[in-house]
Amino acid sequence: MKLYPTKRAVALAALGAPVALAVALAAPGFWGAAAAWMLMTAGLLLADALLAARPSQLALTLAAPGVMGLGRPEEASVEAAFTGPGPREIELALGVNARLVASPVRQRLTLGGGWGRASVSLTAQRRGDGRLEQVWARWRGPLGLMWLQRTETPDRAIAITPDVERVKEQALRLFSRDALFGLKAQMETGQGGDFHALRDFQTGMDLRAIDWKQSGRHGKLVAREFRTERNHHVILAIDTGRLMCAPTSSGPRVDQAINAALLLAFAGLKIGDRVGLFAFDAKPRVSSGVVAGAQAFPLIQRLAAGIDYSTEETNFTLGLTTLAGRLDRRALVVVFTDFADPTSAELMIENVGRLMRTHLVLFVVFRDEELEALADAEPVEADDVSRAVIAAGLLRQREIVIGRLQRLGAQLVDARAEDLGISLLNAYLDVKRRELI
Q1: Which of 138, 207, 209, 321 fits a disulfide with 223 by CB distance 3.0 to 4.6 angstroms?
Q2: Helix (H) or strand (E) holding 195
Q3: Is the CB of residue 173 less than 8 Å from the CB of residue 132?
Q4: What is the mean pLDDT of residues 393-422?
Q5: Residue 99 contacts by C-beta under 8 Å, 6 or more apart in sequence?
Q6: pLDDT digits (tens, 9 = 90+) for 272-289
Q7: How many whole angstroms separate alpha carbon 228 and alpha carbon 185?
Q8: Alpha-carbon distance values, 257 to 109, 183, 260, 344 (Å)
Q9: Angstrom distances, CA of residue 359 to CA of 198, 354, 385
Q10: Strands 222-227 and 106-110
């Protein structure tokens, strides 16, 4: 319990000073009036505190979500209930850690019968563990001279994950279209195709699909029908090093990479492939192994939520070598990373080349919109020309790295942050359609 005076009490005490001074100047024998005024004020403060509702009579109940998506506001509520006669109104405030923002910071709540509930909007700033650290409640006595305050420390944790709801919405919109590959049998033939059924040959079908032996048995032309091979291993390898965690105008690239990875994981598990998550910076941080079935998506989600931001340089040799050692069959490895120049990308290219001897690598890079804007901006002063030349040079170096990756045979997704998820999913479906795995 904490007690302190209100503005009204301070004004009441200050009001006695000029009155006491005037009395002392007019009649010095009545100097004790000043002391009497202070004693009267102190008595009123004490009486107000004694007449007010006791902090022990207040019960504060905090309700908040256990999980929330990054950038998607959620609502928490604080319920205040007095067991005896309570004040007409109460002020509430909710304290959170740096990963959360609470709005409003402080609010006044009118009570009815000693009970009331206040809503607080919570917005996540960064992934990780958000914490509701303290709840403050204060109210005034019946004379309005004293504040009584109660503080509780619920220390409630909220897991801040990528915006999974948006990921699911995107995936469900795509799954609602008949065009999504893998939801129905396809007439795709090839070395990796799974035999599905026999059907009567019809005009326009591929002649290579005719099964001559079965046609002879049935006395009519019969063709093989294939469907896309499933049960592939898809590994989502996310670089969480310094460059990927650096802030940009649309947020850290690692958050955008995780959102795109979750969209691909949701679609891949739905189609029937096996999906694994791997994250690394100076050393491996997360390794899930491969999981199957849509019911495994929450596991991938929880692991992705635990990927923290890093200031360390990425060790591609250790990360990709460790990943390759854990793969026991050919897989599609989706690498999310960023690079600054050909020199810093040299080790990355070397290790990606070794990985591609056994596996198919789908390389995901982010278009640097800031550099593109600087390079394309109309110059107004001399410094603008210098910026444009430097930006154009950096973009050319980036294209050199991309060209080397393509010559190695890596599949490439180069898209803006807002288009990354859809572009990645289209590339994944194209890989399956062409049976490259």
Answers
A1: 209
A2: strand 194-200
A3: no
A4: 85
A5: 124, 125, 126, 127, 128, 129, 130, 131, 160
A6: 899 999 999 999 999 988
A7: 7
A8: 42, 25, 5, 20
A9: 32, 9, 44
A10: unpaired
CA gap 435, 437 in Å, rounded: 6
CATH number assigned to the domain with residue range 55-160, chosen from the 4 options 3.30.70.2580, 2.60.40.10, 1.20.1250.20, 2.60.120.430: 2.60.40.10
Report the alpha-carbon distance of residue 388 to residue 268 in Å, rounded: 41
Q: What are phi and psi of 398, to 5 degrees?
A: -65, -40
In angstroms, rounded to a whole number, what is the distance separating the alpha carbons of residues 124 and 132? Answer: 12
Q: CA 314, 316, 318, 323: dihedral to nearest 10 degrees?
A: 120
Give dist(CA 92, CA 112) in Å, integer.
15
Q: How far apart (Å, rounded) are the C-alpha atoms in residues 247 and 41?
A: 55
Structure confidence at residue 178 (pLDDT): 41
* pTM for this entry: 0.68
Fold of 164-181+230-433: Rossmann fold (3.40.50)
Q: What length does the chain have?
A: 437
Q: For residue 385, what are its two tokens?
A: 């020309």
* Nearest residue to 260 via CA among 416, 411, 425: 425
Q: Which amino acid is at 425?
A: L
Domain spans, the chain: 55-160, 164-181+230-433, 197-227
The Cα 313–Cα 306 span in angstroms is 19
Show the tokens assigned to 41: 């004020």
Residue 20 pLDDT > 60:
yes
User: What are the φ/ψ torsions at residue 179 (nearest 5 degrees)?
Assistant: -75, -10
DSSP reduced 3-state for 25? helix
What are the tokens at 150? 């109660």
